[in-house]
From TrEMBL:
Catalysed reactions listed for this entry: alpha-D-mannose 1-phosphate + GTP + H(+) = GDP-alpha-D-mannose + diphosphate
Name of the protein in question: mannose-1-phosphate guanylyltransferase
Family: Belongs to the mannose-6-phosphate isomerase type 2 family.
Keyword annotations from UniProtKB, A to Z: GTP-binding, Isomerase, Nucleotide-binding, Nucleotidyltransferase, Transferase
Enzyme class: transferase
Residue ranges of domain MannoseP isomerase/GMP-like beta-helix in the record: 301-348
Domain Nucleotidyl transferase stretches: 4-286
Organism: Bombella pollinis
């Protein structure tokens, strides 16, 4: 049995400003109509895998993961929540320990949630070959046959063939992301493969190698899984133990050290959607090589990628640029420097800029809110509440609020009152009032919230009761 494990804890800083810590790239619609996260999970069904997937992701994104799974009809996934980010080794260990509780002979197929794959029949064949290696006790990775001198990927040097397997080889060594000159040399050599970050191994084999090669991670995650709590259907790892696991990628912790490493060379249209240049490559282009998404107009531009989910973006007379427009940020880069965007994000973070990590639109388990206007002592927000959901019962010490319903019908608690507020009606919530907003209907509620007071931060919320246990 192959159990798919989707690793969904990345932050995707090279796809800023669309991808940010508060809502990273795997949940964003970058290609087509579905997100990379949704495409990854559905891919396992296209291959005919019957086992329920294990999803390992950040606790802050639990309701986003659940909602995106619901949208594509995946109802049997087991969602394991990381209390803190500890890189791929700890995430993979958590899935392996959880699976080992019921069947440690199961073969786990670990895959990042943000890769694009276009050739499903070729993927099916590669999975079969990797499974054969895994059944023989190897930790098999998928090595992509290079198509260009790529500097954004790590590389694998292919060694001798594995006895008794088809198209599986020993790994001579792993290589870091190369510079351009080194990447050209690796491409010309013909024996190096791109490291896809996907692995396949029996649960007990992965855990055995982890125990021998990275015992601190093994012990910390084992304790965390032993004390896992079920919370609203999610599997919440015990935080204190999990936080003690060193933050190391599986390449460094296990793959480069184990004697059980194997690689399956493959071509199945794989690409890590890790940069805007990769998005450009995967997006249909016009006759001038331009790819666009959203509210965009071009004139005499060539080989550009332009994305706008906000105001109209007009681009004239330029070549080889990436231009990204969101409601609160504009990013312009040469396509050749797409990998360097993460450095700009680091600079923004060092300067304490909220735009580095947070979107204007912030998702919550009940829906989302977005800031429209912010001034001295006031702020205006749009709030969207999904059918059947409710905000926490709360109060504020520093602000009063005025709610105007523009769509739907809201049930509002205000101290001892329970009010029905319909479209084009409003309600005032004075400073200190205990209040809650509920959507008892079948259509979303949209309301405009006007806050006023000396402090308008999100931490001025005292939750008295919360169905989401925040």
């Amino acid at each position: 049995m192959i159990v798919p494990v989707v690793l969904s804890g990345g932050s995707g800083t090279r796809l800023w400003p669309v991808s940010r810590k508060s809502y990273p790239k795997q949940f964003c619609t970058l290609l087509g109509q579905e997100t990379p996260f949704q495409e990854t999970v559905q891919r396992t069904k296209l291959l005919g895998l019957q086992a329920a997937p294990i999803i390992v992701g950040n606790c802050d994104h639990r309701f986003v993961m659940a909602e995106q799974l619901r949208q594509v009809g995946i109802e049997d996934a087991r969602i394991v929540l990381e209390p803190v980010a500890r890189n791929s080794t700890a995430a993979m260990a958590a899935a392996a320990f959880w699976q080992a509780k019921s069947d440690d002979e199961a073969i786990l197929w670990f895959m990042p949630a943000d890769a694009a794959i276009t050739d499903i029949p070729a993927l099916r064949e590669a999975v079969s070959q990797a499974r054969e290696a895994a059944e023989k006790g190897y930790i098999a990775t998928f090595g992509m046959t290079p198509t260009k001198a790529e500097t954004g990927y790590g590389y694998i040097e292919q060694g001798k063939a594995l006895d008794g397997t088809k198209n599986a080889f020993h790994i001579t060594r792993f290589l870091e992301k190369p510079n351009e000159e080194e990447a050209k040399r690796l491409l010309a050599a013909g024996k190096y493969l791109w490291n896809s970050g996907m692995f396949m191994a029996r649960a007990k084999v992965f855990l055995s190698e982890l125990k021998a090669l990275a015992p601190e991670i093994y012990n910390a995650v084992e304790r965390s899984v032993e004390n896992v709590q079920t919370d609203l259907g999610f599997l919440q790892l015990e935080a204190e133990s999990f936080a003690q696991a060193p933050s190391i990628s599986v390449d460094y912790a296990v793959a480069e050290k184990t004697q059980r490493a194997a690689v399956v060379p493959a071509r199945f249209g794989w690409m890590d959607v890790g940069s805007w240049d990769a998005v450009w490559e995967l997006t249909p282009k016009d006759s001038d090589g331009n790819a666009t998404r959203g509210n965009v107009f071009l004139d005499r531009a060539k080989n550009c990628y332009v994305h706008s989910d906000s105001v109209v973006a007009t681009v004239t007379g330029v070549d080889d640029l990436i231009i990204i427009v969101t409601k609160d940020a504009v990013m312009v880069s040469h396509r050749d420097r797409a990998q360097d965007i993460k450095h700009m994000v680091s600079r923004l973070r060092e300067e304490g800029r909220a735009e580095a990590e947070k979107h204007v639109r912030m998702y919550r388990p009940w829906g989302f809110y977005e800031s429209l206007i912010q001034g001295d002592r006031f702020q205006v927000k749009r709030i969207h509440v999904s059918p059947g959901e409710k905000l926490s019962l709360q109060k504020h010490f520093h602000r009063a609020e005025h709610w105007v319903v523009v769509a739907g019908t809201a049930l509002v608690t205000r101290d001892d009152e329970v009010l029905t507020v319909k479209e084009n009606e409003s309600v005032y919530l004075p400073l200190g009032a205990v209040h809650r907003l509920e959507n008892p209907g079948r259509i979303p509620i949209t309301l405009i919230e006007v806050q006023s007071g000396p402090y308008l931060g999100e931490d001025d919320i005292v939750r008295l009761e919360d169905v989401y246990k925040r």
